[in-house]
What we know:
- The protein has two domains: about 130 residues, 3-Layer(aba) Sandwich (D-Maltodextrin-Binding Protein, domain 2), CATH 3.40.190; about 100 residues, D-Maltodextrin-Binding Protein, domain 2.
- The strands form two sheets. Strands 3, 4, 5, 6, 7, 8, 9, 10, 11, 12 and 13 form an eleven-stranded mixed β-sheet that branches. Strands 1-2 form a two-stranded antiparallel ribbon.
- It is α/β, with parallel strands linked by helices and about 260 residues long.
- Strand 8, helix 4 and strand 9 form a beta-alpha-beta unit.
- It has six helices and 13 strands.
- About 30% of the residues are buried.
- The radius of gyration is 21 Å and the shape is elongated.
Amino acid sequence: MCRCSxxxxxxxxxxxxxxxxxxxxxxxxxxxxxxxxTAKSTRxxxxxxxxxxxxxxxxxxxxRSSLLEFKKAPRIELAIVERxxxxxxxxxxxxxxxxxxxxxxxxxxxxxxxxxxxERIQAVVQEDHRLTSREVVYWxxxxxxxxxxxxxxxxxxxxxLLVSKLIRPEGRPKIEGHDISHGVIKSLVMMKLxxxxxxxxxxxxxxxxxxxxxxxxGTGPSxxxxxxxxxxxxxxxxxxxxxxxLSSRYPATSLGR
Length: 257
């Protein structure tokens, strides 16, 4: 229960704790209202607008190149939303977003999936870290390390993969999740508070003093797969055009898979 104190007029005034709780609730509501506003702008009767959700980097990689190619189409406007995967999934189910480009599975009743590309996992380390002496890094090399993950990263998939590679708990690193951006995570790495694991699309922007090293296991590079998710009842013509572009760029997959 929130502790309260009497106001000068005899009313009840929330304490600092109470005000903080209210402020947090208000922030969450405002974020969701922003997503709803985005949806309304794309549902205004203009078929040339598309709302895309993602939680990866756009500094390099296939998503960046796909968006650049799609943007060449005349009178096509993009509304691009970056949130955690949980928030994006909720927005897609509620019709706020047209399509998601994310790693991992998202269960959606009446939804379709298009398997896309895969990306290699990279270790981000400070330039004088012991791992920089190696061309590649193996999962067993993470023992005694602290791994910093951003909410914007595919953190759950990376953590699940780490657990599957390092079955014995005593051989696993300490994992810290932070509700901060990719850039701030890299700042923490530069401060020598740990290392981070990212996908190769995050390598487009490098920070001075940081190095990337590819992760491998006994069979080769460690990868995560990307997929597109959308609601089957979404009849937005721009969505159809975008899915056709993805299907043509990645012909090994098929719509509705």
